[in-house]
């Protein structure tokens, strides 16, 4: 009787852990998509020294847009040219 009770509660615990893991994955995917949508609305950064060919460059890759935002701030601070690395295989969410 005690063994059945332990197995029953272990199965409940395992089920709860699986539900929590799925919830974390869904939440992270939702947050990444929302951030990417919010950051996509920002105008692209153009260096004020673009005509003069600045010797400083900021090169970045950003899946959800957070690194892109940080790179824009660094490029603006350094008056640098900004270059984005495109990697279409790295999508948002679980697919990426």
Task: Give me the secondary-structure topology.
Elements: H1 2-40, E1 57-60, H2 66-78, E2 81-84
Parallel strand pairs: 1-2
Structure description:
The chain is mostly helical and about 100 residues long. The protein is about 55% helix and about 10% strand. The protein contains two helices and two strands; from the N terminus they run αβαβ. Strands 1-2 form a two-stranded parallel sheet. Strand 1 (about 55-60), helix 2 and strand 2 form a beta-alpha-beta unit. The protein is rod-shaped.
Instruction: Kindly report the average pLDDT value.
Output: 82
Rg over CA atoms, rounded to whole Å, is 22 Å
The residue ranges in which pLDDT falls below 50 over 5 or more consecutive positions are none
Number of strands: 2
Distance between the termini: 46 Å
Q: What would you say about this model in short?
A:
The chain is mainly α. A two-stranded parallel sheet has the order 1-2.
Task: Spell out the key features of this protein.
two-stranded parallel ribbon; 2 strands; 2 helices; 96 residues
């Amino acid at each position: 009787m005690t063994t059945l009770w332990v197995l029953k509660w272990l199965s409940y615990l395992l089920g709860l852990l699986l539900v929590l893991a799925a919830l974390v994955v869904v939440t992270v995917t939702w947050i990444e998509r929302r951030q990417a949508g919010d950051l996509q609305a920002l105008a692209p950064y153009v260096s004020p020294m673009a005509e003069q060919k600045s010797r400083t460059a900021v090169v970045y890759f950003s899946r959800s847009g957070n690194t892109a935002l940080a790179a824009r701030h660094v490029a603006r601070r350094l008056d640098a040219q900004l270059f984005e690395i495109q990697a279409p295989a790295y999508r948002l969410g679980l697919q990426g």
